[in-house]
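Note to self: the last two entries modelled the partners one at a time, which told us nothing about the interface. This time every component goes in together.
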Amino acid sequence: MEKELCISKEAIQKRVQALAKKISSDYEGEDLVLIGILNGAVFFFADLMRAIRIPTKMDFVRAASYGSNMQSSGSVRLTKDIELPIEGKPVILVEDIVDSGLTLSYLKEKFEQRGVSSLKICALIDKLERKEKDVFVDYCGFQIQDGFLVGYGLDCNEEYRYLPEIYRLK
Ligand code: IMP
Ligand code: MG
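The predicted structure of the combined assembly is written out below.
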């Protein structure tokens, strides 16, 4: 499939540093847990966590909502859960991209029920065209109007994840 450059490596890294700086100051002195959403968020998660200047812990979930195509199936299910205890702790869910909002609204509700002290959302990309479910992204890397994006962890049928920059499929 044809693709065009959407966000350069440099632009990604600049935004990651800015988000990390903000998170570091917002959570100073707190026992922050970062929960990454597999698989798409892995590179973003790793770059973000290394750029945050306060001690943090990591864990991961895997949520299935998309089939193998570019359309949301409309239902979300957890196929891998976290292992760290998070009760009473501040948590940030780290996601690659918010499209319909279904995945994050499901995960947000699920983790809020587990007695965390606070739950915020950090997403590299917030797509503006969608929003079946309105989800507020507390820490947002980029707002993108539309299109299907790949690279820097984002895939289309498991392809393109390895690319260091983000492209729009044509
Ligand atoms: P949701 O529609 O907000 O629930 O998004 C579900 C998941 O679909 C996200 O976590 C991404 O992994 C994936 N996704 C949504 N939009 C894109 C895209 O443009 N490119 C690649 N993956 C996407
Ligand atoms: Mg994902």
